[in-house]
Design a protein that fits this description.
It is built from 16 helices and 13 strands. The protein has helices at residues 7-23, 43-49, 65-83, 95-106, 126-137, 146-154, 168-183, 185-188, 204-207, 210-224, 235-244, 247-251, 262-271, 280-289, 304-307, 343-357; strands spanning 2-4, 30-32, 56-57, 88-91, 111-114, 140-143, 162-164, 196-200, 228-232, 255-257, 274-277, 293-295, 311-313. The strands form 3 sheets. It has a 6-stranded parallel sheet with strand order 10-9-8-11-12-13, sandwiched between helices. The two termini are 13 Å apart.
Length: 362
Amino acid sequence: MHAVGARPNFVKLAPVFDALAQLGGLRQLLVHTGQHYDPRLSDRVLDDLGLPVPDRHLGVGSGTHAEQTGRIMVAFEPVLLEERPDLVVVAGDVNSTLACALTAAKFGVPVAHIESGLRSFDWTMPEELNRVLTDRLSTLLFTHSPEAAENLAAEGIAPGRVHYVGNTMIDSLLRLVGAARDRAAWSGLGLERGGYLLVTLHRPSNVDDPVRLAAIVEALAELGACEDVVFPLHPRTAAALDRSGLHERLAATVRVLEPLGYLDFLSLETAAGAVLTDSGGVQEEAAALGVRCYTFRANTERPITVTLGTNTLLGEDPAAIRGIRFDDRPPEPRKIPLWDGRAGERTAETIAAALDAWPAGG
C-alpha cells in the first residue's frame, strides 16, 4: 500500500510503483491522503506521471499540523484494517508521511520510507520532525545519497535496514524531461530560454509572517523591474499574499502564475536562467538539470546538491534576492551517484525481496 498526499511525493513514488508493476506478483494499492487537493497539485500531477486513479482518497485537506496529521491518521486507520497490507510505503517528509507511517506502525504493519536519512538539523522545520520520526518507525529505509546513511547510523538505525538505492525523483525527471522541453512553457509566456528567474516559495517560515513576506515581495518586485521573474504560486503562498494585501505589489513586476502541473513546471525549470526556491525537490531537480539554483534558506537537508550540484544557499535575508544573477552558460547536468534513472528499479527489487523473506502477514 502506497500512502502519499503531496505533489513531490507522487513524483518520488511513480518509479517505484511502475517498477513493482513490472516485477509482477504483487497487488499494489494507492492511497491519496488529499493533503494536496488543488487539481493542479494532485490530479494533473497523477496524469503527468502516468499513475492510476487512487484506490482510496482520504480527502483530509488543509489545517494546522495537528489537525492535518490527526485527520490523516483517523482516515487511514480503517483503510489499514480493511485491506491489511503486508507493507506500507511512504515518501518524503510531509504530514502525510508521518501520519501514515505512525498509523501503520501501531498496527504492526512494516513501513518502507523512500528518501530516508535526509537531515537539515533544524528542529524548527516541521519536515525535520516528520522525517526523523518516520525513519525511526520504518523497517526499510531507502536513501538517495551517501550522507543519509551516515545520519541514520548516528541515530542508531541498524545498517541492515538501510538501502542506498538512489533518487527516485530523478527517475521521473529523466523519463519526462524530453516531453517537458517539448512543451516549451517558457515560449508560451513570451520568455527567452535562459533569460528568466523561476521562483517557488511556500515554506511557513517564508510566507506565513506578513512582515517577512513583505520584505521578500519587495525584493522580488525590485528584481522583477530589471529581470524577467516568473512565480507559480503554491496555494499556501497565494493565500498569504491575499491576507497581507501583497499580491498587487508582487504582480506589478513579477509574472505571477497559478499552480502548475508537473510537466509544465519542469518545462520552465529546464529553460530557466536560475531558480529561487525553498523546496527540497526543486534543489535536486535543478542539480540534475544543471540549472543554477539559489535556496532561500539557511540550511539544506540535501547537501549533495551543494557539493556536487548547482545549489547555493542564499541564506534568509530577503535583500540577498536582489543579487541573484543568471547563468549565461548552457546548463550542465550534474552526475550524482545513483541519480541515474534506475532508483525505482532498485527500490522495487529490495521491496520484493523483503516481502519474499518475511513470514506470511509480515
